[in-house]
Amino acid sequence: MGLEFRNVNHTYNPGTTVERHALKDISFTLEDGEYLGLIGHTGSGKSTLIQHMNGLLKADSGDILYDGQSIYDKSYSMNQHHFKVGMVFQYPEHQLFETTVLKDVCFGPGNMGLSEDEAVSRAKEALKLVELPEIYWDKSPFILSGGQKRRAAIAGVIAMDPKILIMDEPAAGLDPEGRDSILESISMIRKERGITVVLVSHNMDDVAKYATRVLVLNKGSIYMDGTPKEVFSRTKELYDVGLSAPGITVITERLKSLGIGEEDCMISMDDAADMIAKSLRKG
Amino acid sequence: MSLVEVKDLFYEYRERDENGEVDIVTTALEGVSVNVEKGDFIAIIGSNGSGKSTFAKHLNAILKPTGGTVIVRSLDTSLEENTLEIRKTAGMVFQNPDNQIIGSIIEEDVAFGLENLGVPTDEMKKRVKESLKTVGMWEYASGSPNRLSGGQKQRVAIAGIVAMKPEVMILDESTAMLDPRGRKEVLDAVEELNKEEGMTVILITHYMDEAARAHKIFVLHEGQVKMSGTPEEVFKRHKELKEYKLKVPVAAELAVRLREKGIPVREGITNDDELVQEISRIRSEHGTGI
To answer: Do the Cβ atoms of A272 and B254 come within 8 Å?
Structure first.
């Protein structure tokens, strides 16, 4: 089932001089439980695509189906859809506003019409999932560090219990440790809740490490769709559209051209180290 | 005398309560000393909250020290009368490309700073052309900045700085929002300015592979310089870097993993070229004898 795109098109400012065809005939199905890495150059249509996923933007033509039903059907509740498909925008911490962290995280579930007790219990659970220590829950969100604020903002979306969690560059601007730790948390939440995750990122290393499937956009069209190994083995084509391959892939490709290591497209550090060591021992 | 001399720099952020009394004092920099020579390419790395941006803001007098001194080309940044001269000397490129472009035509945007400095028209035209050529954006000169990619916008922002002929350029996480090609474009342009024009560069970044391209790296942690040295010297100490919430570049990490597996990869690998060379050397020297 999942979320199915059928020939979706979207044009900004149609009929004006600044008209831009941002999505061109997009068809694919986001399957339940997937971890989709969405990559593409600036302006390739990534943001437009994810905003169609949760219904913030409406397709000009084509259809989007959630569990087999068109989200544009009159009988389909778009209001509920916004809760089913949770969206964490870039730099979400800029949207924190409440006087305490807990109140901020309660805001979303409160909007869903849940009782205050239920909202609080969901918020607490979400804060535990994003691993924000309890000592901060009653503090102002504005005294938190950058990484902690980001966690609080993500908890606000998790608390609405989405089936699909979309994140636009959740690790942008964080230091290497903060980056790893937030992405590890997201991976853990996906497993624990069995949800679908969509990660929009310019960081090929992160996408290779976490995604189960990679979708590449170029100028509003789907350019590639496959497993990380399938996609990142096409290094040259990725460069052509302004992207790159993970650092480890680039190194192992160069070694392979020198006859060291036979396997195609390495995307994990451990596997690459094993392969190179084995190849050197063999001589 | 060094181009930039930072000596025992302290900076405290003071928050005041509703009565105007100092409420909370946060020390962002604690005795930082850094010298930058003309023509240097310096990288500053450190975790979120380590004081990197606070440090950068001292170099062109956006912030003034609460202790210690910052001297840029013999000018003390704490003196108000020096501010304009310091800003001409030290140009800053920020993180978000969309916040730095103001002109509706690219060449006008690049000329903006020059107009403010009162540069004559002929000289201005010459400098705009030269600086846009330096960053590879001259062919777009008469176009609108709106349609540019992030990397192109950042290069236009850099051209605007270059046109003012500063002696030092500071990049404060200027590639953080860019796609892979954009990052490469900006880094290549910066490296070329340093090599070809002798521009002094101070690069603040979370990307270790970018820092590896500098001549010298300073590691900030909790407002103090914890390490400094060539990329080789700094990335050798990978365990210590981890304590500061940092990492080493992918090539350096792979080198460590291979050493752990008993492959005699030398220490101090910082980039892909060095690692590929080293592995080729091992293969030709050892054959099957490892």
So the answer is: yes
